[in-house]
Write a structure and sequence with these properties.
Layout: H1 4-26, E1 33-39, H2 47-54, H3 57-60, E2 64-70, H4 73-81, E3 87-91, H5 93-100, E4 105-110, E5 117-122, E6 139-142, H6 148-159, E7 168-171, H7 176-183, E8 189-193, H8 196-202, E9 206-211, H9 215-222, E10 229-234, H10 235-240, H11 242-261, H12 264-270, H13 280-290, H14 304-313, H15 333-342
Parallel strand pairs: 1-2, 1-3, 6-7, 6-8
Antiparallel strand pairs: 3-10, 4-10, 5-8, 5-9
Helix pairs in contact: 2-11, 8-13, 11-15
Length: 344
């Protein structure tokens, strides 16, 4: 039997499918086949991307999407820089790091308004943990070196008086491999996203020492709003494909709107079974924990870019705050139009 939410989602999808020819007629896509690189698609960090894909919102915009999943955001970014993908679904702060290397990329629709990254120490390997200084010489698992999980770990280390070189970072992904690495003792601490962190936390495998899965926690760690997951691409690509980028933004904002009223049961029915990591109850508990971190309308908050730049510049000497033009790292034009269309 269809419950009300399921019926609504199905009806929305049906209506979207019917609307496809109309949308294409209104704005001819410069490129309809688009490859998106993502680092750890099963994480809640990228839930809006998965929802928009699974509910057919990209197809409704006339897009033929191919999503390539990598072990972490840094590797997904490499695919776009190398030309094997058009768009990256990843962390906003990469646009700042890229500009510091004289490479210009722009975020054009936001998926997450908090990083959703927590850092935990192993209750087995570090049972006597007291302070950040205790991590010196330890192995810290991240989704992939250079990814946002690595960035948050660097920030927390720097505030505790340690440098990135004082620890060893090991890529463990954002799924079952991350759970195994921590539980088997291969790593002493982990910086990762949900559902991995909630699963480790609730089973007593880790002690959480820093948490950006909530807006309050993000404020405490970063000192302001911190834009997180987004769709970003080379500025040149966006300039050459405005209608295509608008269609991409439309699909994501459509997904964000669906997520505002979706219940945990709706999520379970929509995401692939493998995303549950074998524990449906803990997956749902994870969703409850990160729900407020999901963006509502695709817009990057006005103070967000400044928060991100301040955080990165505080520990990365390669990023000079006075040399970065934040206005070139994002645009809200596409998300604003999508928001108006879907009343998100």
């Amino acid at each position: 039997m269809l419950n009300r939410r399921t019926f609504t989602a199905a009806a929305t999808l049906g209506a979207a499918s019917i609307a496809t020819p109309l949308i294409q007629a209104q704005a001819k896509l410069e490129k309809s086949k688009i490859s998106i690189a993502v680092g750890g698609k099963a994480a809640f960090y990228y839930l809006p991307l998965t929802i928009s894909e699974q509910l057919g919102y990209f197809k409704a915009e006339g897009l033929d999407i191919e999503i390539s999943d990598f072990a972490g955001g840094a590797r997904a970014l490499q695919a776009v820089v190398g030309g094997s993908a058009d768009v990256c679904s990843g962390a906003y702060e990469h646009t700042i790091n890229l500009q510091a290397k004289n490479q210009f990329f722009q975020s054009f629709v936001l998926q997450g308004r908090a990083p959703q990254i927590a850092i935990g120490v192993s209750t087995k390997n570090m049972a006597n943990y007291k302070a950040i200084a205790d991590l010196r010489g330890k192995k810290i698992g991240v989704s992939a070196p250079g990814s946002s999980t690595n960035m948050v770990a660097n920030l927390v280390l720097s505030r505790g008086g340690l440098k990135a070189s004082d620890v060893s970072f090991i890529g463990v992904g954002v799924a079952a491999g991350a759970l195994t690495a921590l539980r088997s003792g291969q790593i002493d601490a982990i910086s990762n996203t949900d559902p991995v962190m909630t699963m480790l936390e609730q089973k007593g495998d880790v002690k959480i020492i820093s948490d950006t899965r909530t807006l309050k926690g993000t404020q405490e760690v970063f000192g302001g709003p911190m834009p997180a997951g987004c769709l970003y691409a080379p500025t040149e690509f966006i300039q050459k494909h405005p209608n295509t980028c608008q269609a991409l933004a439309n699909a994501i904002v459509h997904g964000l709107k669906w997520l505002q009223t979706a219940g945990p049961g709706d999520i379970i029915k929509t995401v692939p079974e493998t995303y549950l990591l074998g524990d449906r109850a803990l997956y749902l508990a994870s969703f409850d924990k990160v729900r407020e971190a999901i963006a509502t309308d695709g817009l990057i908050p006005a103070e967000g870019p400044k928060t991100a730049l301040g955080a990165i510049a505080s520990f990365d000497p390669m990023v000079k705050a006075d040399k970065i033009d934040l206005a070139k790292t994002y645009t809200n034009d596409f998300a604003r139009r999508a928001k108006d269309r879907f009343k998100a």
